[in-house]
TrEMBL record:
Annotated protein name in UniProt: Uncharacterized protein
Top-level taxonomic group: Bacteria
């Protein structure tokens, strides 16, 4: 299957990079804050990478500043969100989680992600 035909499956995991040195994004207990799963001004979706299309090193980009967390694509769909493959230059695994983002959704995403033990 070519990348233009690639689809995100409900079995996929979506990787989100989170700044771990900044207290606004990581709580004292090491879990991500809901702000790590909030759309910033001008964004039309939450930026993630499809795990099976990348590797952790490429997805994390800078392990001195970021950690990776995984969300199940099936879970984001259960919340009424859409998972859309959105390849960008240099990252064919890039995708967006799109939909009605509000505080409740951001909290649920933060509470239901899994920390990737990398590096």
């Amino acid at each position: 299957m070519s990348s233009s035909e690639e689809k995100i499956s409900i079995d996929d995991r979506l990787l989100r990079r989170v700044q771990f040195l900044h207290p606004s994004f990581i709580k004292e207990d090491g879990t991500p804050a809901s702000s790590s799963f909030t759309l910033k001004k001008g964004e039309n979706g939450l930026s993630v990478d499809v795990e099976r299309l990348t590797d952790y090193d490429k997805s994390i980009q800078d392990s001195s500043r970021f950690r990776l967390y995984a969300l199940k694509a099936s879970y984001t769909q259960e919340l009424g969100l859409d998972n859309v493959l959105d390849p960008i230059e240099g990252n064919s695994a890039h995708a967006l989680i799109k939909g009605n983002f509000n505080r409740s959704i951001s909290r649920k995403l933060a509470a239901n992600c899994e920390k990737i033990l990398y590096p």
